[in-house]
Amino acid sequence: MSATMGLMNGQEFGARHGCSGQSPLHAIIGESESSATVILSTTTGPFKIPVISPSATCECLSNRKDYPSFFRTIASDYHQSRALVYIVKHFGWSWVGAVNSDNDYGNNGMAIFVKTAQEEGICVEYSVKFYRTEPEKLKKVVDTIERGTAKVIVAFVSFVEMGLLIDQLSIQNITGFQMIGVESWITTKNYITPNSFHSLGGSLGFAVRKINIEGFADYVRKAFWDTAIPCLQEERNSSRYVLSCSRYEDIFALNNYTEDVSEQRYASNVYKAVYTVAHSLHRLLKCKEQEGCEKSLTIQLHEVVEALKKVNFTMKKGNHVWFDSTGSAVAQYEVVNWQQDSDGSFQFKPVGYYDASLPPDQRLELNTKEIIWTGGQLKKPKSVCSESCPPGTRKAAQKGRPVCCYDCIPCAEGEISNETDSVNCKQCSGEYWSNVEKNKCVLKAVEFLSFADIMGIVLVFFSLFGVGLTVMVAILFYSKKDTPIVKANNSELSFLLLFSLTLCFLCSLTFIGRPTEWSCMLRHTAFGITFVLCISCVLGKTIVVLMAFKATLPGSNVMKWFGPSQQRLSVLAFTLIQVLICVIWLTMFPPFPYKNMTYYKEKIILECSLGSTISFWAVLGYISLLAFLCFILAFLARKLPDNFNDAKFITFSMLIFCAVWITFIPAYVSSPGKFTVAVEIFAILASSFGLLFCIFAPKCYIILLKPKQNTKQHMMGKITS
């Protein structure tokens, strides 16, 4: 503080000189550390004395309200802290540890880093700090690093503190951590030794960019040798030179060595600081080439501050120098990597750069192939709390832990995630469903009863078997049409019944195969009409049995009212009613193909929508009415005499018919998918086989196996068997 006040007042300032209005001091170049610069700027601020620092990077100094006259030829840590986040994110590290020095430099820099890391989805496992005078805290920091699971450590540490940390890491032989450093220590030659390299080899960090200043290397070399070895100024042949310099002969060979001068990265910032002051004073003194400056002008300190704000010049090497609105230089860093050469020497290998003046997507450039990682590895280390969730899964946060710690939960059925580390699974829409891996929506499987299905093949077989059996019965009856048993059973209605049964067996085939607009309309109408035709024939046969018995009574002429013509008309009339119902159905609400996606979520049931449920049940209801009427009449005629009485066989066939269709209703409603169609086909085939066997099997048995009973006398019951 005393040095600062003395510098501000000047060495020869006294009462006798009075106040001339000219400040004895126009600018201060320094300090190097942020904490010291904060103190200096706070002290000089009220006097508006400009302070230009070549290396104080704390973001706190960007506050123009608290430090209105502060400038620096280095970038603010705001940019470096964010650049640290970007480099961590670039390499896919989402789980890091953080260490900072407990001073203005470390605390402000780490605060910006942690905040930006959270915004970018990077989790900080721990954030610990220590100061150079706190050895106990330093030990706790080292213990935290060793116990932590994060393999990447961001060290926002000042020069002195980093030296202490490196010593402790080397002593305790802590290795395997990828260190990410900052400009304060990453290019310090003293820190890269065999012991420290064992722990910190492969470190990566941001350094102040190298700028070669013309003539600076020769200047430094001459200044060093003239100061360190004064004897070199003596004449070489003098006895005094021999006495004074003989002991330095071993190092004279290094007289022209200047390779390490380029690593004096902050020297260019000091150079810039001097020139910014010079340019400001030149502007205020109105200096011109050949004419010189107006030295009589009085320069006020606030004028120097304003002149510094407008500084804008280019150095000999093309580097542009200017200050932004916070008084800082543009952020330009070199990314360096601690590497060891084949000869065992160490170097700071440039592997990229960061330039805040470029567009956001171009600011960070890295040559990953040139990087040697911790432990001399060529493969990038991993540092994550949880492994990435592959496509087909989603992230589920672990309770009480950071967002980077999560479990990978497989997507539910019908949902997918096609990205790594997906937060949510997307629902497949409409006709799509998730594949086995849950990473792609694919078209749902379409299900219908096809001819290629085993169930379809079995049903087709029984359908064609029924057709074949019916045709065989028809051929048998035709060949025996003149025999009493065929004549007695009303051969015309029998052949019509066999024809309708054939259609019933065949109509079941329309239910198999991919539903189309035509097949949907055909299957239900064909089923309804053929079954009404079939039941009408059975009903006709039943009425014939009743009429035949009544005709045997004395004085009865009832058969003339129900002869062959009336029988045909009755069958036609009953069938036309069903035809009318079907025409109305097809005209107003025709069945149509429908993709049922509600019963199964994972597949589409391709079925025929009824169009009108009322019409469908009207068709079934009419068939049921005729069947019930037939059953009642057959039941009443079951005990009538004569061997040709069909009533008991018709009764039994109607019982089977009704039983099949009564059980069909709950089975049809509850069956899923293609089994609904199979149930309907089964009902058609079962009832058709029931009619065929119950009505025609006894006659075929007599024709084929008991031909002696196929006589008129036996039919009339006059011969006992």
From TrEMBL:
Residues 455-719 form the G-protein coupled receptors family 3 profile domain. It is found in: Cell membrane. The chain crosses the membrane at residues 454-479, 491-513, 525-549, 569-594, 614-637, 649-669, 681-705. InterPro entries: ANF_lig-bd_rcpt, GPCR_3, GPCR_3_9-Cys_dom, GPCR_3_9-Cys_sf, GPCR_3_C, GPCR_3_Ca_sens_rcpt-rel, GPCR_3_CS, GPCR_3_vmron_rcpt_2. The keyword Membrane applies. GO terms for cellular component: plasma membrane. The keyword Glycosyltransferase does not apply. Its main location: membrane. Signal peptide: none annotated. Gene3D superfamilies: 3.40.50.2300, GPCR, family 3, nine cysteines domain. GO terms for molecular function: G protein-coupled receptor activity. Keywords: Cell membrane, G-protein coupled receptor, Glycoprotein, Membrane, Receptor, Signal, Transducer, Transmembrane, Transmembrane helix. It comes from the Eukaryota. It is a multi-pass membrane protein. Belongs to the G-protein coupled receptor 3 family. This is Extracellular calcium-sensing receptor. It comes from Anabarilius grahami (Kanglang fish).
